[in-house]
Specification:
The chain is globular and about 70 Å long. The protein is an alpha/beta fold and 399 residues long. Strands 9-10-12-13-14-15-16-17 form an 8-stranded mixed beta barrel, surrounded by 4 helices. Strands 1, 2, 3, 6, 7 and 8 form a 6-stranded parallel β-sheet that branches. Helix 14 links the parallel strand 16 and strand 17. It folds into 2 domains: 122 residues, Response regulator (Rossmann fold); 243 residues, EAL domain (TIM Barrel), CATH 3.20.20.
């Protein structure tokens, strides 16, 4: 529920940085089977950008990365005080990998025993087992409860753009913490641990603030539909629906609210997701399947759930303009989702070429830095008014 982009609450996160797609897929499959949410990267730029959105528990790092290498990444991680574990993998000789492993240790990083390619599933899962004896990464000493009590939390908004019209047709609310000394912090710096009772007041804050912010936008004629993120466990609390009813605006122009649930949560709790989706529909609140394609479910498994929207994970759409197989896979998701009556949103878009490819495959909406980064509510209002989205003119262009 506290996320930024691809980050998921209560899920162990693993990042994979390797320039070989087949190796990335192999590792992602093993890590997913071990309970991790994975993101894979073939280049350092996209990897470093992802680190600003979520802090992984483990980074699986190849030594040879085309225009860069593992040592450069180690230096960068050390400079940013990365607190997770690093697992080196490489086809180089053991002595070379061992020397890089020592460099990581010298930089103060937590280095798991390295692996030489090719390796067995058992060898990789054995390395993951070492994580249980390692102290979880300390990303911050932020007192979240104090921040919540003192009004330091904010919601920032990232627009969702209609690919045919190039107009703003929604926005996702993302949590931020404005620290008096450290400035604006992303969720990785203050997220409560999984299962913490603080997720309940946090969920209440997100509902209350997002709907208050909608009224703030609507006072200027901006009545776009907002989306918020919630862990499915919040739906089981007795006060969830009653609080939501209390906060919903009593205005005829209120377009409704979207609550995003990650694909893995929906699969694990399908019956609860179905029950809640039906109940929330009574209040003009729809559910969205977020991060679709990051796991191993299929739309056939999800089609019986009364959801209104599907968001394709950035790992599926990033680079779809350059890869025919990936393009066809994304188009297949879009076509099937449309058959089930779902609106399709592609997330994490950073390339104008990918925007054009997604438009060609009739994807409904896109969200990403190619259009706009998340921004605080006053800036979002200014940005939206500047593009005259509420008047239906002046479509956004990408280069």
């Amino acid at each position: 529920m506290i996320r930024s982009g691809a980050e998921r609450v209560g899920t162990r996160i693993a990042y994979i940085l390797d320039d070989a797609p087949d190796v990335r897929d192999y590792i992602a499959q093993i890590a997913t089977g071990a309970g991790f949410s994975t993101r894979s990267f073939g280049d350092v730029t996209s990897f470093e950008m992802a680190l600003t959105e979520a802090v992984p528990e483990i980074i699986v790092l190849d030594l040879s990365l085309g225009v860069s290498d593992g040592i450069d990444v180690i230096r960068s991680l050390a400079a940013s005080r990365f607190g997770g574990a690093i697992l080196l993998i490489s086809g180089r000789d053991a002595d070379t990998i061992g020397e890089v492993h020592k460099i990581g240790i010298q930089h103060g990083l937590t280095m798991l025993p390295f692996l030489r390619k090719p390796f067995l599933i058992e060898e990789f899962t054995e390395r993951l087992g070492f994580l249980t004896s390692i102290r979880p990464p300390v990303t911050s000493e932020i007192d979240f409860e104090n921040a919540l009590r003192n009004g330091q939390l904010e919601l920032w908004y990232q627009p969702k753009i209609g690919l045919n019209s190039r107009l703003v047709c929604g926005a996702e609310a993302l949590i931020r913490l404005r620290h008096p000394e450290r400035g604006v912090l992303s969720p990785s710096a203050f997220r409560p641990p999984s299962g913490s009772p603080l997720h309940n007041p946090l969920a209440d804050f997100v509902m209350r603030r997002s709907l208050a912010d909608w009224s703030f936008f609507a006072s200027d004629g901006l009545t776009t539909k907002l989306a918020i993120n919630m862990p499915i466990s919040i739906f089981e609390t007795p006060e969830f629906v009653s609080n939501l009813r209390k906060y919903l605006p009593d205005r005829v122009d209120f377009p409704g609210l979207i609550i995003e649930l990650t694909e893995d949560e929906v699969i694990r709790n399908a019956d609860l997701a179905r029950e809640v989706a039906i109940q929330l529909k009574l209040y003009n609140v729809g559910l969205s399947i977020d991060d679709f394609g990051s796991g191993y479910s299929t739309l056939e498994r999800l089609r019986t759930l009364p959801f209104t929207e599907l968001k394709i994970d950035r790992s599926q759409v990033e680079g779809c303009s350059n890869n025919q197989e990936q393009y066809l896979r994304c188009k297949g998701i879009v076509d099937l989702a449309h058959r089930f009556g779902l609106i399709v949103v592609a997330e994490g878009i950073e390339s104008a070429r990918d925007v054009r490819a997604l438009t060609e495959m009739n994807c409904d909406m896109a969200q990403g830095r190619v259009f706009a980064a998340p921004m605080e509510r006053k800036e979002f209002r200014k940005w939206t008014k500047r593009h005259k989205m509420s008047a239906g003119v002046g479509p956004i262009t990408v280069q």
